[in-house]
Amino acid sequence: MKKILPILIILLSTPAFAALPPSADAIQIILSPEKPGPNTLVQASLHILSGGGAAGVEVEWLVNGVSVRKGEGETSASFRTGNLGSKTVLTVKLSEAEEMIEKTINLSPASVLLVAESDGTAPPFYRGKTVFSYHGATRIAAIPFFANVSGARANPKTLKYTWRIADRVPEGSSGIGRDVFNFYAKVPFRPTEITVEVESPDGSAVAEARIRVAAQPFFFNKADALALQYNWTLNNLKVGSQSDESVVFRKEGAEGSAGVGVEVTNPKAMFQFGEARTMITF
User: Fold this and answer.
1) Measuring CA to CA, which residue among 211, 128, 231 is closest to residue 163?
2) Residue 199 CB neighbour total at 10 angstroms
3) Which of 27, 78, 149, 209 has the most beta carbons within 10 angstroms of its beta carbon?
4) What is the pTM of this model?
5) 267 and 178, same structural domain?
6) Is 1 inside a domain boundary?
7) Residue 219 falls within a domain, yes or no?
8) What domain range includes position 86?
9) Do the beta carbons of residue 217 and residue 163 sit within 8 Å?
10) What is the pLDDT tens value at each position of the chain, 282 positions in all?
11) Which residue, of 155, 183, 213, is where some domain finishes?
């Protein structure tokens, strides 16, 4: 009788470990907002560009060397930037077994404010600020809040400005010290979005701001004020000349009422026009 010897096959499996990215270059930290200002709450997210992943890996977030979040697969963290002139060092460390890889970014919080000014006219007795007219000149001034190496506020003329109109960079409008941007609104009835990006000389601090400029009817460009044409009517009959900014209506020895109207146009800008009508009693 033959003996059958049982053969025990033991399969030994090696534990599977999560693989770390090949290098720090494969790690991307995305910030929201992308260019945070001083004392701003920031959300940081971890993205692996190639090789490995964050699942099963211990992730630690540090701000200026202080741990703010730590745990397996923790791919996001929040923190607040410091005052103007401060430095914020954000580090993320990925650890698995005896291996560790880290990524660090340096932040210098800064901000910029945009102020829009219209070179326009306003109707008589109008008590508000002149607004933007169709085809009118508009001046946008950037007021940056940056710190220099000594911590004092930086000279605006030492900073680099990049201006955009709807993601288009107008030729000759950007550069070092170009903190004022002038343009004419060419498309009527549609707001114009202006964006500026300001960068420190060493590139360590970047700030961005945008403003929407909407033209309003019945306002005119101040530079063309002398070229405006006036069409006056009395009971729908033309009176006066096109250069008359004002007219005098007089009817002696009679009583009654009459309809007075005026249409104002700018021959240099077809979308600058206005009209008004009223009744006068004499």
Assistant:
1) 211
2) 20
3) 27
4) 0.66
5) no
6) no
7) no
8) 24-107
9) no
10) 445 544 443 433 334 445 677 788 888 999 999 999 999 999 999 988 876 667 778 999 999 999 999 999 899 999 999 998 889 999 999 988 888 889 999 999 999 999 988 776 666 777 777 766 666 678 899 999 998 877 788 999 999 999 998 888 988 899 999 999 988 766 555 778 899 999 999 888 999 999 987 665 555 555 556 667 777 877 777 887 777 667 776 666 666 677 787 777 777 665 666 677 777 776
11) 213
